[in-house]
Amino acid sequence: MASRKRPHQRHDPPAHPEPARVSHLPEAAAPHPEHPPTAAATTHPHHSHPPASADTPHPHVSPRPPLVWYALAAVIFVGCWLRFLHLGDVEKRSPDEDTYTDFAARIADKGIGTTPTLFAEFVQQSDQQNYPAPTRLTYFVLEAAVMRIAEIRDASAGVAISFILSCLSLVLLAWIGIRFFNPWVALSAVTFMAFSVGELAMARRAWQDSAFGFLGLLMMYVACEIASNPRRRAWYPAFLALGTLSLLTKQTGVIIYGVCGMWLLWVLLSKERLRQPAALLVWGSLASVVVTVCVLAVAAGGFAQVVPALKLSVNPGQRAIAYMSEYSSCPWYQFVYLLWITGPIPLVLAAAGAAVVVLRDRRNAAVCALLVTAAFVLFSSGYPLMQNLRYLSPANGAFCLLAGIGFCYLMNLARQRFQKTAYQRVLSVSVLVVMIGLFHDYITFHSTVVQPGILDLSVKLMQHA
Question: Which residues, in sequence order, are bridge partners of residue 388?
């Protein structure tokens, strides 16, 4: 009796398989040579991989080497150490720092009830209109709190805030890189930020820019969390609260809040087609603007002081206009040239990373980083009187993230094109070039910021230092 043939078993693949997670750098973490990684970047770490078919050999899986984690911790330590190293070499405080310190000290002494007086003086006294407006409540209150806790009333309170939040920005950037990319992108991005001329300069001053930079990076992270799981409502209040704080920190808070909010709305409506979360985002954003105005009204002692204070915050006094016209106004390409002077390697790699995001890598976090960077670079280079490295602070983390994406993509491309020995040589030379470039950035910081003792980071002061 002939044996009955067993029917052919059909193995249907999943309807929408996700690409396997790929590391960008060392050989130990790469997939098996028979399955080379795609040029696209990694997927979300919580997404499951498609099951392997019966006739597909299993990829070689090796544990992730601990080297990247040790290197990441070391780079964060070096970045914090470099910031700490220059806390005591500031001989003179800038007028902006004196204004922040004075406002915070008066709030620390007399309580929050003194803010209506600050608003009245700013509106009524023309000389005060040449300096930061009291509408930047977030930083004043934060600095006043540090003054109360530490029992001090000088600029060291603001410097402590700048130093701590600049160091925390390194940690937060590392987590964003790990969470939405991979440890090698995180390591590259944090390395560039650790040696950033602008970040090193702001961390030693009592400006509000380091705090604003941390706030902008935190807002970008929360926006990426919402985009990765739009149905989870817990992140929405955090995003709206950060948006309110950004509007109460600096006038350009509207840029970071607006860019992240509009991008999120596009993700919710166009990609995810979720109307209810989109409505929550829209109405919540409008409510946050109302809350911002109400907080300012309470701080100013009524709406009558808020409107003129807001107008004067974007149209300052004549001496301020004259200063910005002389030192912070130039053709757009001179500001791009300033970025080249202060960090040629990060600038080139950020441009490469931007090209990768536009042409190949459409992950949410990568797109968000590109939009935030583009918005602030275009604003600072193209808007009159705004050519200043300080105004890029909310986008510094996004800029370094693009540079990390660019570097890891180029190394991954080299790994695919070259044999193992040749690739190791390319990787070694590339790392050496980056290290030389970072040493150049630190020397530039020391020669253009520390030694001349400049009181601002405007384009002409930096170029002529």
Answer: 458
Tens of pLDDT, residues 27-66: 333 333 333 333 334 334 333 333 333 333 333 334 455 7
**Cβ–Cβ under 8 Å, residues 404 and 185:** yes
DSSP states of 402-414: HHHHHHHHHHHHH
Bridge partners of 301, per DSSP, are none
Q: What share of the chain is helix, strand, coil (3-state, %, to 5)?
A: 70, 0, 30
Taking the C-alpha atoms of 351, 355, 358 and 362 in order, what is their torsion angle to the nearest 10 degrees?
-90
- Beta-carbon contacts of residue 270 (< 8 Å; ≥ 6 apart): none
DSSP 48: P
The residue among 350, 387, 352, 388 whose CA lies nearest residue 372 is 350
Read off the pTM.
0.85
As a whole number of angstroms, the distance between CA 90 and CA 355 comes to: 39
User: Is residue 405 packed enough to be buried (19+ CB in 10 Å), middle (13-18) or exposed (0-12)?
Assistant: buried
Mean pLDDT for 420-445 is 96
